[in-house]
Amino acid sequence: MLRQLLGKLLARLHVRGRDLAIFLVSLLTAFVFWLGYNLSQDYSEIVTVPVVAESNLEGRASVSETQSNVVARCRMPGYRIFRLGRLARREPVRVHFAPEDFVYLQEDTYSIPSSALGSYVKEIFGDEAILESFVSHSLQFRFARENFRKVPVIPVQVIEYRSQYMPLGRLQVFPDSVVVYGEPRIIENVERVMTEAIEARGVHAPLNGVVSLETPSGVRLSEHEVNYSQEVTRYVELRSTVKVRALNVPAGRELQIYPSTAEVVYRCAFPMGSDPTEGIYFYVDYNEFARSLSGRCVAHPSAEPLSIIDYTIEPQVFECVEN
Predict the structure, then answer these.
(1) pLDDT tens for residues 298-321?
(2) Is residue 116 assigned to a domain?
(3) What is the domain count for the chain?
(4) Last residue of a domain, which of 88, 123, 142?
(5) Could you list the residue range(s) of the whole structural domain that residue 167 is in?
(6) Distance of CA 248 to the CA centre of its chain
(7) Burial status of residue 124 (CB atoms within 10 A of its CB: 0-12, 13-18, 19 or more)
């Protein structure tokens, strides 16, 4: 029947032989263009996407045991709607949620409210999706408990500073600790996590960036990288010969210090106003001497103005004798 109708149509259109092949190709081409045009147009549809959650919830697995369906009305191209329709019948989308967006419900169950889902529209529905409204009010996921331990992050640095420049304080990392997950017998031996080497040459300005962490064998880390920063300042050196005094000596006693003078090199922040070393002296505390078994003590500055970044003293240790 269909063949007879097609034959009558072709006869009416005077299509025969070679013209038939050209007609069919043209018809197919027109259909492809029609389909492509319609699939590229934007449509407003209710779509459903199954989602598996990933996160860094402390003491929990990184991937949820369960999945949840996100239902929303979105405006997007037709081909994207077609792909999401096929996806809903296949594998779920993995979405990394920030830990602070979760609301703890009970036992191992956490919820993501629709108020937080707006930040993840692109990850769930794709870059071309425009959210109109959510149908699902919240998502719920179960995260299994895991053995964990929090350890400090130790930065590994190979930094060389330009002449007359130096670090101001320690290199800081954020976060300064991470959570280590794994079997108890393994994580109990992990005392710290090291960064990859932070290398820089000729540094003369504040230093900052991102560095990866070295993951110990057999464990998982809550973070894979950390931010680091280092304040840097220019300095000038001032040299001085100072007399070393004894303080807190009880009445009727005397503490002799050898040598009685020391050479001090101050590193001061540039530029300087007045001389920051004026009025500073060094002393040995009698109480430290009394606790010492050898009578060898270090000298302390009487003051440390903020403009003095660092100092070195020679000798570093003094021989003390009580009379």
Answers:
(1) 999 988 777 888 899 999 999 999
(2) yes
(3) 3
(4) 142
(5) 148-230
(6) 49
(7) buried
pLDDT bracket for residue 125 (50, 70, 90): confident
List the helix and strand counts (H, then E) for the chain: 7, 23
Structural tokens at position 54: 């990933």
Structure tokens at 151: 């350890």
Percent of the chain with pLDDT over 70: 82
Give the CATH number of the domain where residue 317 resides. Answer: 2.170.120.30
Q: End of a domain among 192, 208, 230? A: 230
- The CA-to-CA distance between both ends of the chain, in Å, stands at 128
Higher pLDDT, 14 or 244: 244
The per-residue pLDDT for 91 is 77
- Provide the pLDDT for residue 4: 60
Q: Which backbone phi and psi does 177 adopt, to 5 degrees?
A: -150, 155
b/e map 276-297, b = 16+ CB within 10 Å: bbeebebbbbbeebeeeeeeeb
